[in-house]
Amino acid sequence: MASIELHSVGKSYGDHPVLEGVDLNIDDGEFIVLVGPSGCGKSTLLRMIAGLEDITSGTLAIDGQRVNDLKPKDRDIAMVFQSYALYPHMSVAENMSYSLRLRRKSKEVIDAAVGSASQKLGLDPYLARRPKALSGGQRQRVAMGRAIVRKPKAFLFDEPLSNLDARLREQMRAEIKRMHAELGATSVYVTHDQIEAMTLASRIVAMNAGSVQQIGSPLELYDRPANLFVAGFIGSPGMNFLEGRLSQSNGVSEIVLSNGIQVSLGRHVARADGEMVTLGIRPEHVVAASSGTGVEAQVELVEPTGLGVILHLVVHGESFKLFSTDRMLMQAQGAIHVTLPQSRLHVFDKDGVRISEDDV
Amino acid sequence: MTGKLIGTIAHRGAILVYIAFALFPLFWLLKVSVTPNDLLYSEGVRLWPSRSTFDHYHFVIENSAFPTFFKNSLIVASSTAFAVTVFSSLAGYALSRFRFRGKYVIIALMLITQMFPLVMLVAPIFKMLSPLGLTNSLTGLVIVYTAFNVPFATFLMQSFFDGIPKDLEEAAMIDGASRFTAFRQIILPLTLPGIAATLGFVFTAAWSELLFALMLISGNASATFPVGLLTFVSKFSVDFGQMMAAGVMALIPACLFFLLIQRYLVQGLTAGAVKG
Amino acid sequence: MSYHQVAGTRTGGKRPLRRFADAAEPWFYSAPVLVLIIAVMLVPLLLGLSYAFRDIQLLNPFSGGFVGLKHLKALSQDAAFYRALKNTLWWTGASVFLQFFFGLILALLLDKPFAGRGIAQALVFLPWAVPTFLAGLNWAWLFNPVIGPLPHWMVSLGLLSAPNNILADPQLAMWGPIIANVWWGIPFFAITLLAALQAIPRDLYEAAAIDGANPLQRFISITLPFLAPTIAITILLRTVWIANFADLIVVMTNGGPADRTQIVASYIFTQAFRRLDFGYASAIALVLLVLLLAYSMLIVVIRQRLIEKD
Ligand SMILES: Nc1ncnc2c1ncn2[C@@H]1O[C@H](COP(=O)(O)OP(=O)(O)OP(=O)(O)O)[C@@H](O)[C@H]1O
Ligand SMILES: [Mg+2]
């Protein structure tokens, strides 16, 4: 197992930069999840670690050793592809043992490794089959098996579960988590799935347009998003953003929204009076209150999700969402009252950067 | 539903007409080759002679250099097919997988070779090969045929490689293979249809080539089938039965090869066409 | 940040040797092909172009000197060459049109699934595998009234007044190689067009059918526009190829009777092979090359115009 360090790593295709100044230190045994919108460079970053793409600038080190120039085969890293990339002309056993056969391991070693991996993944009955004769979930397992047989320094996953149905994805997610706990292997995992990111990661790397936006534990990203991008990207349904102007009065800051409503932050924010800011609050933190408190909101749309309900609300022309597990709200119509708990408010300055709570 | 039925009948009928048109000349070749000489003229337009014989085949095999021609053509066509397939797999792979400066130069060079009249090369190639002792030699023919067929074969192979996901060799390289090992062990086995198509295509082309063989080869010892057949035709131009027997024998290897590989060929051209 | 980078590695820090090895890799794969086409096709091409300005007689050891534009001048006076040029147009135009027309119909027929399609396809494509010289001989024999049925059938159909060999008839001779060429070349068009047809998304037809388009309207509004790029490129390549294609003519008529079937490509071959006058043959080849290049450019430009219009 190994640590992976990236120092101001960049990548461009011709003159077109796709990754810029990526700094990331992955400790031995960590499970790093890369998230970000499509095209932001997650796969590219992963493939650079694997050695499938050249590194345009910066340094990549594995176990403290600079590996920019190393071919993929000499990096001792395993990767699970979104398409699984199983060799169609080899049986399951041959697929899993290919890397060991390339390293000219003895037959006993190979048999033992394939045997234990296939047992772990429940692939024993399929060892002689070709990938064509497997279901999607079984193929996914073979791809995992191919990665684990040779005990590599690190695992890379590029959206490994995105071709599975929801049920199977859930099951495999748990299995990956269990396997990581067992093997303790350094892993880098790309996904679009919020839940996968939250449940698997020891740290999440949120990326946008080729640069890292925030690195932190899942809860850090959820509770204290570093900027508007991360705030909007993490969490579903996405965070509500309301634009306003800061107004300071005797030590307590208030935000005057564009529709005139004033929201007290209950604390002091060290920014100039009158500065433009963005107020953020997650739909699940908006509270439906009994009439008489908070502000009155018009219910535009009700979306039941099973677990709860999403209300689309409008207050004086400003629209936002509320999520609640209170089933009573499914009958909501006309006007309801809502409050925005102060402890749940996020404030971002005019550049979209979070104004930290300790920033007094 | 009679409209639909008529449509179906017309469709099958049209297909049959095409099949008849495609096969009739070959059928006639076969028919004359088994017609005894004395019936040749009296039963000129009959579809099958009242009596058939293999005498013409016997004569051709025993009294001419056809076995030699056959052997020469077989050597030339299979060596060419083999060489072209090896070279064009390598180059087709490079065109399919690498982005490199000069790629478009290579493509342009290969396109140029498809544009000009090959007859134009007859004279210079003769002049170039004769000091090397490669005229009147099968090796010379193989070299020339290989070069002529390599551009198209490369494009064909490229379209097959393009159809194989890049992920596969990337997975192999991560598994510990060098690029060349991944190419040999993972990509090539998956390209077998493409290889078959290329082999068949080139074999047929080399088996059929006439002009350069005429120009570069003199004398029976290293003549290929087309040259031999043509000399035979001009020498025995009255004995149709024998000529056609020779023709049928020239036809067999090419047709066998074609029937074996034709569905791969269609598949290869399909892949190419879909892409372009 | 306090890590230190190796000096001078701002651009990814690749070592020169690795950089070179990476850049060279594709060239290793393409080297054999490159060497072959340069040595056996492009160098001879340049040599051939130079022959057009030299006196090259194969059996004459004293030949080889530069003669400037002598061959080209002689060519401009050569009535046989102009006739060959006219014949080339006729040969190429008729062959390409008929191959395309029948090839398209065949492709449309084969695009429909039916029992036995695989076999039917193999059989109708078979002529393509027939060696061209043999195709030539085969059709020459079919046109021969002594041995072939065609003259007799044509008389019965009223196409001919007597069962003569059309290959010996100056008025009709060109039809012989053209028919052989069409027979041999239909499969090529059919295969290419079939491939393009099968790439058309089926749901387009279904959508059009639901919109109430009849089969002809569907063909014109969906099939043709989809096939157009394939048709354009195939016809361009095929035209050039057929203009250069001398085998059938050499075998069937050898340019005769009275040069009525001599095309430029077979004329080059006659000059080089029968007269051994390589210089003059190369001059003709040069002119043919220029004409074909001009034609290709024209097509490419027209196509570009059409695309820009859209
Ligand atoms: N070979 C290439 N040439 C030029 N640009 C490329 C190439 N490969 C990728 N890119 C660009 O690099 C950017 C990052 O691509 P990448 O595949 O890493 O995105 P991603 O974050 O993995 O997206 P997704 O979530 O959709 O998989 C994209 O804008 C893409 O267009
Ligand atoms: Mg990706």
UniProtKB/TrEMBL annotation, chain A:
<keyword id="KW-0813">Transport</keyword>
<dbReference type="InterPro" id="IPR040582">
    <property type="entry name" value="OB_MalK-like"/>
</dbReference>
<keyword id="KW-1003">Cell membrane</keyword>
<dbReference type="InterPro" id="IPR008995">
    <property type="entry name" value="Mo/tungstate-bd_C_term_dom"/>
</dbReference>
<protein>
    <submittedName>
        <fullName>Sn-glycerol-3-phosphate ABC transporter ATP-binding protein UgpC</fullName>
    </submittedName>
</protein>
<dbReference type="InterPro" id="IPR047641">
    <property type="entry name" value="ABC_transpr_MalK/UgpC-like"/>
</dbReference>
<dbReference type="GO" id="GO:0005524">
    <property type="term" value="F:ATP binding"/>
</dbReference>
<feature type="domain" description="ABC transporter">
    <location>
        <begin position="4"/>
        <end position="234"/>
    </location>
</feature>
<comment type="similarity">
    <text>Belongs to the ABC transporter superfamily.</text>
</comment>
<dbReference type="InterPro" id="IPR027417">
    <property type="entry name" value="P-loop_NTPase"/>
</dbReference>
<dbReference type="InterPro" id="IPR017871">
    <property type="entry name" value="ABC_transporter-like_CS"/>
</dbReference>
<dbReference type="Pfam" id="PF17912">
    <property type="entry name" value="OB_MalK"/>
</dbReference>
<dbReference type="InterPro" id="IPR012340">
    <property type="entry name" value="NA-bd_OB-fold"/>
</dbReference>
<keyword id="KW-0067">ATP-binding</keyword>
<keyword id="KW-0472">Membrane</keyword>
UniProtKB/TrEMBL annotation, chain B:
<dbReference type="InterPro" id="IPR035906">
    <property type="entry name" value="MetI-like_sf"/>
</dbReference>
<dbReference type="InterPro" id="IPR050901">
    <property type="entry name" value="BP-dep_ABC_trans_perm"/>
</dbReference>
<feature type="transmembrane region" description="Helical">
    <location>
        <begin position="182"/>
        <end position="204"/>
    </location>
</feature>
<dbReference type="Pfam" id="PF00528">
    <property type="entry name" value="BPD_transp_1"/>
</dbReference>
<feature type="transmembrane region" description="Helical">
    <location>
        <begin position="104"/>
        <end position="126"/>
    </location>
</feature>
<keyword id="KW-1133">Transmembrane helix</keyword>
<feature type="transmembrane region" description="Helical">
    <location>
        <begin position="210"/>
        <end position="233"/>
    </location>
</feature>
<dbReference type="InterPro" id="IPR000515">
    <property type="entry name" value="MetI-like"/>
</dbReference>
<feature type="transmembrane region" description="Helical">
    <location>
        <begin position="245"/>
        <end position="266"/>
    </location>
</feature>
<feature type="domain" description="ABC transmembrane type-1">
    <location>
        <begin position="70"/>
        <end position="261"/>
    </location>
</feature>
<comment type="similarity">
    <text>Belongs to the binding-protein-dependent transport system permease family.</text>
</comment>
<feature type="transmembrane region" description="Helical">
    <location>
        <begin position="12"/>
        <end position="30"/>
    </location>
</feature>
<feature type="transmembrane region" description="Helical">
    <location>
        <begin position="74"/>
        <end position="95"/>
    </location>
</feature>
<keyword id="KW-0472">Membrane</keyword>
<protein>
    <submittedName>
        <fullName>Carbohydrate ABC transporter permease</fullName>
    </submittedName>
</protein>
Automatic annotation (TrEMBL), chain C:
<protein>
    <submittedName>
        <fullName>Sugar ABC transporter permease</fullName>
    </submittedName>
</protein>
<comment type="similarity">
    <text>Belongs to the binding-protein-dependent transport system permease family.</text>
</comment>
<keyword id="KW-0472">Membrane</keyword>
<dbReference type="InterPro" id="IPR000515">
    <property type="entry name" value="MetI-like"/>
</dbReference>
<keyword id="KW-1003">Cell membrane</keyword>
<dbReference type="InterPro" id="IPR035906">
    <property type="entry name" value="MetI-like_sf"/>
</dbReference>
<feature type="transmembrane region" description="Helical">
    <location>
        <begin position="182"/>
        <end position="201"/>
    </location>
</feature>
<keyword id="KW-1133">Transmembrane helix</keyword>
<dbReference type="Pfam" id="PF00528">
    <property type="entry name" value="BPD_transp_1"/>
</dbReference>
<feature type="transmembrane region" description="Helical">
    <location>
        <begin position="27"/>
        <end position="53"/>
    </location>
</feature>
<keyword id="KW-0812">Transmembrane</keyword>
<feature type="transmembrane region" description="Helical">
    <location>
        <begin position="278"/>
        <end position="302"/>
    </location>
</feature>
<feature type="domain" description="ABC transmembrane type-1">
    <location>
        <begin position="85"/>
        <end position="299"/>
    </location>
</feature>
<feature type="transmembrane region" description="Helical">
    <location>
        <begin position="122"/>
        <end position="143"/>
    </location>
</feature>
<feature type="transmembrane region" description="Helical">
    <location>
        <begin position="222"/>
        <end position="243"/>
    </location>
</feature>
